[in-house]
UniProtKB/TrEMBL annotation:
InterPro entries: Fib_collagen_C. Keywords: Collagen, Secreted. PROSITE patterns: NC1_FIB (PS51461). This is Fibrillar collagen NC1 domain-containing protein. Its main location: secreted. GO terms for molecular function: extracellular matrix structural constituent. Pfam families: COLFI. Residues 1-249 form the Fibrillar collagen NC1 domain.
Length: 250
């Protein structure tokens, strides 16, 4: 179970780095704003990486399955994608009754048409170890107490580039990310290091994957909130992705 590594005064540590030693990797309670303990929350503490405090993405963003995304425009933000009944496994479809007008081909007044409304996507969200949303104030204090942050993003691709396009020797099809401060991050924004740990998608052939790592000493840029994929829309092209945890280090 989660460890309650409290100080002698009974308060939870503000970040993993301040957990009393000896400490082992696992789930711990922390309280970044050091207010009342009721808003403390559980996180994963990675002591093998120097005491990182890690938050995980909401389950719906942890793994988005491979799809063609035929109705979407390449290069647009994932948060604007519309997810209907075809991809119902990713989100419920809402039913609404829209009032109909009397007339030819329409039901009588007072009877409604039944419409299936696609559930819009949203920006990436993050949760604690219990699956609850992390309060904004706690995330703000976590950033204030940290000197750097990092996060991985994996694009699963089919006949598509994710970062480098080896055939055309260009980064024109590279992923773009949106940071927590709404700043755009990518190949054209060298201020925040975005690098490929593995770039299997660069050949644009078959099913592969590209693993990106975003690191920054400007912690307000993380966690990532959105992604724009450029290379899809042609026959037999697909993509899906896996959003990794965001880890803060004091």
């Amino acid at each position: 179970g989660p460890r309650r590594a409290q100080s002698p005064q009974g308060a939870d540590p503000s970040v993993c780095l301040l957990t009393p030693l000896p400490a082992f990797p696992g789930e711990y309670w922390i309280d970044p704003n050091q207010g009342c303990s009721r808003d403390a929350f559980r996180v994963f503490c990675n002591f093998t990486a120097g005491g990182e405090t890690c938050l995980f993405p909401d389950k719906k963003f942890e793994a988005v399955r491979l799809a063609a995304w035929n109705r979407e425009k390449p290069g647009t933000w994932y948060s604007t994608f519309k997810r209907g009944k075809k991809v119902g496994a990713w989100g419920q479809t809402l039913l609404t009754l829209r009032p109909g007008a009397a007339g030819k081909g329409r039901p009588a007044r007072g009877v409604g048409w039944l419409h299936l409304l696609p559930v819009p996507s949203s920006q990436f969200s993050y949760v604690d170890a219990d699956g609850n949303g992390v309060p904004v104030t706690q995330l703000t204090f976590l950033r204030l107490l940290s000197a750097s942050a990092r996060q991985n993003f994996t694009l699963n691709c089919q006949n598509a580039a994710a970062w480098y396009d080896a055939g055309a020797s260009t980064f024109a099809r590279a992923l773009r990310f949106r940071g927590a401060n709404d700043e755009e991050l990518g190949h054209g924004h060298p201020a925040t290091p975005v690098r490929a740990l593995r770039d299997g998608c660069q050949g644009r052939r078959g099913q592969e994957r590209t693993v990106m790592e975003v690191t920054s000493s400007r912690v307000e840029r993380l966690p990532l909130t959105d992604v724009a994929v450029a290379d899809f829309g042609d026959a037999n092209q697909k993509f899906g992705f896996e959003l990794g945890p965001v880890c803060f280090l004091g």
